[in-house]
Amino acid sequence: PREIPSTCAYAEAAACEASCFLHEARGTMTTLPSFPEERDVTGEEPRIGVFICRCGGNISNVLDCSQVADFARGFDGVEGSFVLDFACFPEGISFIKEKIKELGLNRVVVVACSFRSHLAVFQRALREAALNPHLVTMVNAREAIAWPNREVPESALQRVKEELLGALGRARSLKPLRPSLREVTKRALVVGGGISGMVAALGLAKQGFPTYLVEKEGELGGQARRMFRDVKGRDVSQFLSSLIKEVEENGLIEVLKGYKVAEFRGHVGQFQTVVEREGTKKALEHGVLIIATGASEYRGEEYGRGEDRRIISQLDLEERLKRGEVKGERKVFMLQCVGSRDEGHPYCSGICCQQALKNALILADMGISVTVGTKGMVTPGDTFELYLKAKEKGVRFVEADDRVQIERGEKLIVNLGEGREEFDLVVLSAGIVKSEDNDLLSFIFGLPLNEDGFFEPEDHVATVTPVEFSKRGVFVCGVASGPKTLEDSIAEAKAAAQRAATILTKERIVGGTMVSKVDGSRCVACLTCVRVCPFSVPHIGDEGVAEILPEECRGCGICAAACPRRAIQLEHFEDEQLFTQIGAILSA
User: Fold this and answer.
1) Average pLDDT of 434-453?
2) What is the CATH number of domain 300-432?
3) pLDDT digits 0-9 by tens, 276-313
4) By CB distance 3.0 to 4.6 Å, which of 180, 315, 394, 570 could disulfide with 560?
5) What gap in Å lies between CA 560 and CA 516, rounded to an integer?
6) pLDDT value for 461
7) In the 8-state DSSP scheme, what is residue 237?
8) Nearest in space to 545 (alpha carbons), one of 557, 534, 529, 560
9) Rounded CA separation 512/500 (Å)
């Protein structure tokens, strides 16, 4: 069982694997829609067509649709008013297109259901009839009027007339909108050369996309270089060696070792990053960015770690196991939650218990007696089987809290508060803490960190896309966003690669049409829009006024509502259009 974000990450990872196999066939079966040349209606007087949908009785059982149609015909600019059984069905769409051509309509009002579910259907109909798709507006007569007023049809009729008046007023002020286009640099940048970064780079390269892989150290591998085996007993060193070999031999991956990120600018599809090594700078142009900077093991000095070779961390133990240096020890004590679940680090790292169980089983198989002191083992999913297996192998679990004391002498004496016991080796299950570079990289890339210093995709996107920031074209994977298992990190890396590929497969980024637009003559650079935008899109440009790129704007309209100078208008929902709509409703 997995939580929704993890499930989505694994699903994206599966899609990445499939895309790697199928990338050569990409686009071979794609057919692009063909539309007639758009009719220029600039300067024409509004010629409005009103189409009322019965919706199979959902609306007509409450509203007299014929009476609504008659009501609409009495207003200036309305060239025709019609009742349809199902406006969104092919027959209804064909009827609307026929009337647009027959009557020379240049505005359309549809009285039907929610625009959220059906606006795109009617916009396409307009485009197929040679009109700009933004010359249509809707009245939600089903969810907003008919359904809530089943018992009072008179009230529903009055309400729909008011809404229709507003829609007619709004329709008269609608104007054509067209999207902006930006070329895509078909290259990726992955920052971080650990397992997550390498897997992400391969996930892109295997789909045919050239990729920069930047690693600050002199060699690839990250923390995985210290690991011995994973929780399923597989040799991490062997896996890591083959992964590094595959990355370095892939002609589409350019590995930049010893480089650190110095500068970053640009927007989705066209980013520019400057990396630096020993004073030498290198400019990289790329269309997407994946953050895979990893994390660090907690390196506190509690219990004498760093002063006594017999007091080590789980990763230290794994390094000794790799080198065959664990031989003379007969009794080992493992202490959980060191650098986790305390005042300094209140979160649970989640993987420390799994790491301890894995290593305890390895030691038990070597004939070493293992005792685990714990505040409570965390064993999600199939990790519980490791716990049961460890108990079967004779691993002892005892309660331990922050009062544990370790006396160093000829033997290590562990005082649990209820008794003292001698051990040859004490292994501290240290938590996972943020990478020391996170604060700087967060500033350079303009990305949020959580209270523990890990990169954090915003809540409004992370539920279903846990690897994606609200900043378009930027992704994160692995322990850069928080502690997780090696298996989960690999899945996130593939997921990030797949999300990035959805951008790189495009020739151009198509900007939105219903987006915010700044009137530079009114802007005083007060930063209100910069502060309130949940997607960090507005910024103060070189000319000293706010700039909003249509390719990145999500069209939420918060900046337009908040701007004290009314210097920002949301296209298709401009003040004039809304005031006209409101005035028409009030006039009823």
Assistant:
1) 94
2) 3.50.50.60
3) 999 999 999 999 999 999 999 998 878 888 888 999 99
4) 570
5) 7
6) 61
7) H
8) 529
9) 19
Whether the pLDDT of residue 463 is over 70: the answer is no
Please report where in the chains the tokens 């949020």 appear, as a residue: 448
Query: Residue 274: beta bridge partners?
Result: 263, 283
Measured CA angle at 575 (ends 572, 579), to 5 deg: 110
3-state class (DSSP) for residue 487: helix
CATH topology of domain 4-23+184-294+435-508: FAD/NAD(P)-binding domain (3.50.50)
In the chain, what's the furthest Cα-to-Cα distance? 101
Residue whose token pair is 């920031």: 469
Q: What residues have CB less than 8 Å from 62, skipping those under 6 apart?
A: 145, 146, 147, 149, 150, 153, 156
Mean pLDDT of the 74-82 span: 95
Q: Do domains 4-23+184-294+435-508 and 300-432 have the same CATH topology?
A: yes
**What is the model's pLDDT at position 458?**
77
Helix (H, G, I), strand (E, B) or coil at 76: coil
* Torsions phi, psi for 284 (to 5 deg): -120, 130
Q: What is the CATH number of domain 511-587?
A: 3.30.70.20
CATH of domain 48-173: 3.40.50
Task: Measure the CA dihedral 532/538/541/545, to 10°.
Answer: -60
What DSSP designation does 295 have? E
Beta bridge partners of 291: 191, 476
Q: Are strands 288-291 and 188-191 parallel, antiparallel or unpaired?
A: parallel
Domain ranges, ordered by start, for the chain: 4-23+184-294+435-508, 48-173, 300-432, 511-587
Average pLDDT, the chain: 93
